[in-house]
């Protein structure tokens, strides 16, 4: 593994360590490319504050810190500045306005909630409600059609325990749309080492049949997880088992 585009910082309130530690570990692990993609701030209404995203007033410091490290380590590793972005239809336009003044190089789609988040369920919570699955797929496809996302992080995060045929049909449509739009799908290392419901073998079987391009993402929230040989081994087995098309590096899609 020579590239990881999915790296967080302490600003999201559920990650640890300094940005420098992430960079140093990436270099030690043999990476040629490291992308920072912390959870984007959101222009929530009514004074709502998320406990899993950086605040808008932290964005400038995030940008300055990553750009300074890119310059400092330019001879050792290629560093990129991105964000993991939720697609919230009611907030997306305002979010783009907030982010546009900054030199953000790419967005990763990370769809953790339905709707605009407030009052909505977390997609990783187990549910057999078909409405949750259908809304997740519809909202994710709407996000992909904006053309602003470099890849889809943990696309199998939705923890659906209901009708298997509905899951296969819905996720099949999602995979087809991602292929049609040339958006790679991420096999997520955090889900592997933390024992989450994703990576979901059901999903990756479908992706293999559809012929999606996949990419590995460390989803590092601690410096020692930037390089994760055990998760890499298990991810490589998924690629082999389901005949997935793995991309070691991917072109960044400018969001603006």
How would you characterize this protein structure?
The protein has helices at residues 19-28, 59-72, 92-99, 130-144, 164-180, 189-193, 201-210, 229-242, and strands at residues 3-4, 33-39, 78-85, 106-109, 151-152, 185-188, 213-217, 245-246. By secondary structure, it is α/β, with parallel strands linked by helices. The chain has a single domain, classed as Alpha-Beta Barrel (TIM Barrel), CATH 3.20.20.140. The strands form 2 sheets. A 5-stranded parallel beta sheet has the order 1-2-3-4-5. α4 (130-144) runs parallel beside α5 (164-180) and α5 crosses α7. The model has no long low-confidence stretch (mean pLDDT 98).
């Amino acid at each position: 593994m020579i590239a990881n585009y999915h790296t967080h910082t302490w600003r999201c309130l559920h990650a640890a360590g300094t940005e420098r530690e992430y960079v140093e570990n990436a270099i030690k692990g043999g990476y040629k490319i490291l992308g920072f993609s912390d959870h984007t701030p959101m222009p929530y209404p009514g004074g709502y504050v998320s406990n899993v995203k950086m605040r808008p007033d932290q964005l400038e410091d995030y940008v300055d810190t990553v750009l300074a490290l890119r310059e400092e380590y330019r001879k050792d590793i290629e560093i990129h500045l991105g964000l993991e972005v939720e697609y919230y239809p009611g907030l997306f336009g305002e979010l783009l306005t907030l982010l546009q003044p900054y030199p953000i190089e790419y967005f990763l789609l990370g769809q953790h909630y339905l709707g605009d988040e407030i009052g909505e369920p977390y997609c990783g919570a187990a549910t057999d409600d078909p409405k949750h699955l259908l809304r997740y797929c519809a909202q994710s496809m709407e996000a992909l059609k904006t053309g602003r996302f470099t890849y889809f992080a943990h696309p199998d995060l939705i923890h659906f325990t209901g009708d298997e045929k509905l899951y296969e049909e819905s996720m099949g449509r999602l995979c087809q749309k991602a292929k049609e739009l040339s958006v790679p799908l991420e096999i997520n290392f955090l889900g592997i080492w933390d024992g989450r419901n994703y990576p979901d073998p059901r999903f990756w079987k479908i992706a293999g049949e559809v012929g999606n391009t996949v990419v590995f993402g460390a989803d590092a929230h601690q410096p020692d997880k930037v390089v994760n040989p055990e998760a890499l081994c298990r991810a490589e087995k998924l690629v082999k088992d389901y005949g997935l098309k793995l991309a070691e590096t991917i072109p960044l899609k400018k969001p603006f």
